[in-house]
Give the backbone structure.
Amino acid sequence: MRPTTKDLAQAAGVSLATVDRVLNDRSGVRKDTVDRVNQAIEKLGFTRNLVAANLARGKDYRFVFLLPRTGDQFLEGLIKRIGEANLAFAAEMVRAEVIHIPEGDPHQIAHLLGKLDAERVNGVAIMAPESPQVRDAKARLAHRGIETVSFISGQITQDHDDFVGIDNHAAGATAGRLMGRFSEGKPGKILVIAETMLARDSLERRLGFDEVINADYPHLSVLPSLETYGDADRAARILEASFSGHPGISGVYVLSSESRLALTLINARPKTRQPLIIAHERTPFNEAGLLSNQIDALITQDPGHLVRSAIRILRARCDRRDILASQEKIRIEILFKENI
């Protein structure tokens, strides 16, 4: 039989009320009593039924996903997965909502984080470029009792509990390996496109890509990163200038999660041969491009896993439980036309 709080109280020689205080980390219990209860927990192998306890106390978990205003199809997919997670976690008293942020203005993001009410929000998953303003705002949230986790855009940590997403350096290195193998030893120039290089994910992908190309494929020359900022007119101008100034472009690597703007312009250009194209994330546009041979490979991460992992990490932190790092590791997936 699974040990109960009554068994725990008996083993520790304390009342049920004292056990409840210790389990809920409330004050008014002497240290030696807390130690006895914790020793009894370890001896009996007691595992608390948090779902039942939360139902009894009427406790729920209220999480917020701070997502960029731009992001197009990839962002739409994330929002859909958040809605699915709300249904899946409803029995566990979990509810997540989405707030859109101006990703290009760290001061506004910090201001928005500062307005979050600890009485209404237990945790926040933040998809925003790293900046001193956002970093300091996250630290202030922690002091107010609101848990945070970097979502997709951030830096992976050893314990996988401060960042939810793929290892972006490894993802960029994977793109470099694919680009090098696909080139078949033929010289060429590689165009690299991002919405912004201020995003940590784009920066790390570029570093990983360059490391592999420079080490193993010296016949390829990687051009400086182009930043579109999600602006169609700017994208058209800088792409036209790049193709005019570099007639030997043989490959295109899109760093950002949204590739529709750049690839639509590239595919509309008159050309003698199709450049190799590698992009990120499985969106309807990218799927269609893969199937029509306009994209050669996609490097993706499961948006449903991303959302569920963020929720599990935030909930574990709220409950002061350890996080199972292996469960939260987001895998890098490679898609071709044949396995989509």
In short: The chain has three domains: 5-48, 59-165+303-330, 168-300.
